[in-house]
Amino acid sequence: MSKAMSLISELAYAGQRPKDSILKAMNETGKKSVGCFPIYTPEELIYAAEMLPVGMWGGQTVGTLADRYLQGFCCSIMKANTEQALLGQYDFLSAVIVTAYCDTLKCMIENWKIASPQLNLIPMVYPQNRKIPAGKEYLRDEFLRVKKELERISGKKITDQEIQKSVDLYDEYRRTMQEFSDLVKDYPDMLKAKTRHLILKASYFMDKRIYTEKVRELILELSKLPRENAFGRKKIILSGLIAEPDGILDIMTENGMVVVADDLAHGARQFRTIAPDTGDGLNRMVERVAMQDGCAFLYDEKKTRAAMLIQMKEKYQADAVIVCQMKFCDPEEFDYPIIKKELEGAGIPSLYIEIEQQMDSLEQLRTRIQSFSEMLA
Amino acid sequence: MYLGVDIGSSSSKAVLINRAGMVCGEGIVNIGTGSKGPQISVEQALRQAGIQRCDVRKCVVTGYGRLMYEGADRQITEISCHAKGVKFLWPTASTIIDIGGQDAKVIRVSINGIVENFVMNEKCAAGTGRFLEVMARVLDCRIEDLSGLAARGNPGVVISNTCTVFAESEVISQLAAGMSIEDVALGAHKSIAQRIAGLCNRIGIADAVVMTGGVALNHNVVTAIEKEIHHPIIRLEDPQAMGALGAAIFAREMEAGNS
Fold first, then answer.
1. What share of chain A is helix, strand, coil (3-state, %, to 5)?
2. Does ipTM surpass 0.85 in this model?
3. Which of A219, A241, A305, B181 has the fewest Cβ atoms nearer than 10 Å?
4. A360 — contact with chain B (CB < 8 Å)?
């Protein structure tokens, strides 16, 4: 096995086994871990507190315990997270940060305080107007409040120098991921859609420094290899919250598709904006949030997401966009009509697929994806 | 000869065409994937054409059960196959409404037969053949009698078009409230028509509109859809076989090397 393949396997394995990977990271680093709910949490502060930020993006868990707190119309990620919390699966976490991006998340915060008090819940609200001075001041205060909570939990004072160092590390991670993401189109066999997804997913369960070093090494190893033949494949851009269950990615590969870029909240939205190098660590974090656009979860009065997708299509010479709509995710649903209209206006084919993380039958989606592939041929 | 097999959720269809594109054999069996239906439909088509399986030069399979069928040279989705079959018979078709056992699809095709866009129903069986099966069971009639019953009904009964299970409860309530079976049958057809009109609105409608799939055999449903979408619908003689015909044409093109 080549060095590149060995790194790919290692990272994909880590992405496939969240709990094992987190426990391994905790064991290796001796750090405590803090759960991070979707979509964005101030991971830099957790890392500065010498703890591990770990992603909590649902899973395949299906049960009935979560029904005590969540209605049938809540998204499958929140249901899975709540079920796992009630089963005690998260009890190894020292705290959980929940950000209130949607109505379900707002209710989750109050429910979890009662349902799982042992999890040290830290709620957080991002400002609607994140680009104006008042919004930035508010966000800085929110970060300070979270910082205080993390100091209490870790028993460690977080200095600005540590935050600066953490932001630097996260920016290095983001630059590395941008570079990695751009490489995928040249290696469509080694980095099939699911493999790409699992490598990106591993970032949620590993120490960011170690993860970034591994991906950096992978980029180096890939650069030594000749580009793979991508002739005849359909180049796809994914948009939406998350492309899970990952069986849909296998269906895309089976139908000659390669994911050349994404606009997924679980994927590239985590790393496409770099913090500016001005002010203290908290200021850099605040400004980064203000700069991030094209995301359904951060109020964007100019509605730039569709224009961004059109630019991505040009940049990656993509053939089409597939919108992975998580069922009952209303922030994403609000964006879709605009995206559809603008993509149609630009003559870009798009496919809308509605997904739930715990779907066990993907056959109807198979027909849709295969038909779309046949349409693009 | 070229064989096309369409394995749906509730029926299996097979069509054999010759090099000139003429249909030489056809088999339709009302049992679908996971059953002996595909095999029986192919045997029927072979018998009608008077040939053996070894005389088939290429075979393309489509439909929900396409991945399970052994002996196909290629599998292609029913969306592409219905478009291919319809354009072969009706070259001016621009919109295809295909309602099968558990799926409803609206397909837009270009003048040269390319699928431009499509929409499908979500998981729920509302607006599909399964919905009609449930209605027939509740109304205690055969599915093929629904069209005649609805033709004698008076409008006014409203049945949910969002969920088959809710619709079933509503039908029982309507019958309990004294509504006639005919009126309820008409209400059920209108419910399907509204669901399909919703799909059509998502994708846009252009004439000529052609309807395929087993539900197209129910003339009252076709009329109800025409009223909802405000476009006339072309009624093909053999709407159920369009997917299999399209698959057979793809098989012929495969050998010609232009597929």
1. 55, 10, 35
2. no
3. A219
4. no
